[in-house]
Write a structure and sequence with these properties.
Blueprint lengths: L2 H18 L4 H23 L3 H13 L5 H17 L8 H7 L5 H14 L4
Helix pairs in contact: 1-2, 2-4
Length: 123
């Protein structure tokens, strides 16, 4: 399996969706970053944690968009969070979720998601 090409295709498709259909950007972002995070977890199992650094450099070079190690790690953490929660709120953007990644307590994360949804807080 070529993990790198899968990640690259996910990111390219997301960039295309952003340009073509603005109204689905949030859903596309959430799906893309979830899928990239999942692929990164699988790649890490086979090639070790250093693979993220390699993919960061290759993606940045190939796509002319900066995908630094930190952003790829956040995608991986996002995937792990969603796997624990089993659902994604369409009312939250990826940026909301990135802010919540700093919390270890799933109950605290769910509490803040509820607050964000109720108050319609946007980024």
């Amino acid at each position: 399996m070529n993990y790198y090409n899968e990640i690259k295709n996910e990111l390219i498709n997301n960039e295309i969706n952003k340009k073509v259909k603005n109204y689905i950007v949030n859903k596309s972002d959430l799906n893309t970053y979830y899928n990239v995070g999942k692929i990164l977890c699988e790649a890490g199992k086979h090639y070790g944690e250093g693979i993220i650094k390699e993919y960061s450099k290759r993606l940045t070079d190939d796509l002319n968009i900066k995908y630094d190690v930190s952003s790829l790690n956040k995608m991986r953490k996002f995937y792990n969070l969603i796997e624990k929660m089993a659902t994604v709120s369409p009312n939250l953007s990826y940026s909301h979720y990135v802010e919540l990644l700093s919390f270890d307590d799933l109950n605290k994360i769910q509490y803040y998601i509820k607050i964000i949804e109720e108050q319609k807080i946007t980024n």
